Amino acid sequence: MGWRDIYPTAPFDFAKKGRPINLTPGDWTAGDEVTGVIVTSAGNVVLRPREGDTDITLTGMNAGLWLPYDLGIIRKTGTTAGLATTEF
Question: Tens-of-pLDDT digits for all 88 residues of the chain?
C-alpha cells in the first residue's frame, strides 16, 4: 500500500491536468471536471459559484493561489488576473 492509498487527497495532488482560461470572447463557464482555478498572474477575479446567485469579487489575488471553489462562471468584466483550471 502506497501513501496515495492512505492520503488520497494530499494537498499537492489536487488535480491531474488543467488548461488556461480565455476570457477574450466573454464570460467563462466551468464544466463538471473543474476542481478549482489557479491564478497564473496577479489581479482580481470575479466569479459566481455553481449553486450561487451572486457574483463574488476577489481582489489582489497573487499568482500561484489556488481557488478551490465549485465554480459556475468566471466573469470577463472585472477579472484582471490570469487564470487556469485544475481538473481531474
Answer: 454 454 444 445 556 788 899 999 999 999 988 888 999 999 999 999 999 999 999 999 999 999 887 889 999 999 999 999 988 7
- Tell me how many domains the chain contains: 1
Say if residues 67 and 36 touch (Cβ distance below 8 Å). Answer: yes
Cell of 4: 496515495
Closest CA to 47 of 33, 36, 87: 36
Q: Is the residue at 58 inside a domain?
A: yes
How many alpha carbons lie under 13 Å from residue 30 in its C-beta half-sphere? 25
Give the domain extent around 43. Answer: 29-88
